[in-house]
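User: Just a sanity check before I run the rest of the batch. Below are the C-alpha cells for the first item. I only need the designed sequence back.
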C-alpha cells in the first residue's frame, strides 16, 4: 500500500528496497497519487522495480513533470485558469517507464484511486488504461489538470484516500505493508500564515481517515507502517524540490531495514 506525498514519494523507494532484501514480495499493490506512480512500476516489474525506481527518481526525467520557469507556470495558469503544469510531461514519463497499456495486464494485481469530481467520491481503477488511471490519481489540484476518463473528471487520489488501508482489507489482505511519505510520523502544528490554514485542514482530514481505518481493523489483519527515518516535516509547497531524493531513499531504507530486522515482518 503506497500512499501519496509528492516528492516525498522517494521515501517509498527506500522502503521497497528494505522489503525486497527481507524477501517480502507483493501479492497486491495499491497506490494513491505519487504512490500510484511508484506502485505501477512495482506491479509492472517487481524483480527490478527498486533499481528502476531509483534510477527514475535520481534522474532529470522526474523534474520534467513539474518543470518550467515561474513565467512558464504563470503562463500556463493564465491560459488554463486552473493549473500550473501541463500533463504531457508526466504522461510521457509514465508511458516510457511502464511497458503495459492495461492495468489487468500487469504481472502483479494493481489498483489506484482518484477523486471523481462529478460524483464527489473515490473511484478505484482496477481495469483499463494504466497511464490514464495513474495520471488521474496524481492530478494534484492546482498543479495538474483534472484527467477525463469515460466522461468523468478526476483529481488526485489523496483527496479521498491518502493511505487506503480500508481498501486493502476490503480486498482480503491479511498482512499489509504501508509505504508512506512521512507526514503521519510528525505531529501537526497550528497554522501561522494564511496559506497554511488550508494545508493544515487538509492534513487533519487525511490523517483522520487513516487513523479511523487503523482503529477499525478487523481481527487477524496485520498492518506494518514502515518508518521513513525523516528528520522532520517538509512543506507541501516545496513540491518541486528534488535536491534530497537520494537522502530520502537512504533514510527510509535504513529505518525500514531496522524495523524489519527487529522481527516486525
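Assistant: Here's the designed sequence for the first item:
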Amino acid at each position: 500500500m503506497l500512499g501519496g506525498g509528492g516528492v516525498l514519494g522517494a521515501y517509498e523507494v527506500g522502503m521497497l528496497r528494505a522489503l525486497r532484501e527481507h524477501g517480502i514480495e507483493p501479492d497486491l499493490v495499491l497506490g494513491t497519487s505519487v504512490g500510484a506512480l511508484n506502485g505501477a512500476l512495482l506491479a509492472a516489474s517487481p524483480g527490478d522495480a527498486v533499481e528502476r525506481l531509483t534510477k527514475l527518481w535520481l534522474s532529470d526525467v522526474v523534474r520534467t513533470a513539474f518543470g518550467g520557469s515561474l513565467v512558464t507556470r504563470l503562463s500556463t495558469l493564465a491560459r488554463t485558469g486552473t493549473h500550473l503544469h501541463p500533463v504531457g510531461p508526466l504522461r510521457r514519463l509514465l508511458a516510457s517507464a511502464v511497458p503495459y497499456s492495461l492495468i489487468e495486464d500487469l504481472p502483479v494485481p494493481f489498483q489506484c484511486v482518484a477523486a471523481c469530481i462529478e460524483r464527489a467520491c473515490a473511484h478505484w481503477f482496477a481495469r483499463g488504461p494504466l497511464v490514464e488511471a495513474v495520471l488521474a490519481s496524481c492530478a494534484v489540484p492546482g498543479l495538474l489538470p483534472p484527467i477525463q476518463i469515460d466522461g468523468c473528471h478526476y483529481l488526485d487520489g489523496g483527496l479521498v484516500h491518502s493511505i487506503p488501508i480500508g481498501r486493502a482489507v476490503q480486498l482480503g489482505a491479511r498482512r499489509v505493508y504501508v509505504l508512506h511519505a512521512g507526514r503521519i510520523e510528525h505531529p501537526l502544528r497550528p497554522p501561522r500564515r494564511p496559506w497554511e490554514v488550508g494545508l493544515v485542514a487538509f492534513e487533519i482530514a487525511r490523517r483522520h481517515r487513516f487513523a479511523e481505518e487503523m482503529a477499525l481493523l478487523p481481527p487477524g489483519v496485520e498492518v506494518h507502517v514502515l518508518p521513513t527515518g525523516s528528520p522532520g516535516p517538509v512543506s507541501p509547497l516545496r513540491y518541486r524540490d528534488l535536491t534530497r531524493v537520494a537522502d530520502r531513499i537512504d533514510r527510509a531504507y535504513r529505518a525500514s531495514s531496522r524495523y524489519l530486522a527487529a522481527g516486525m515482518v
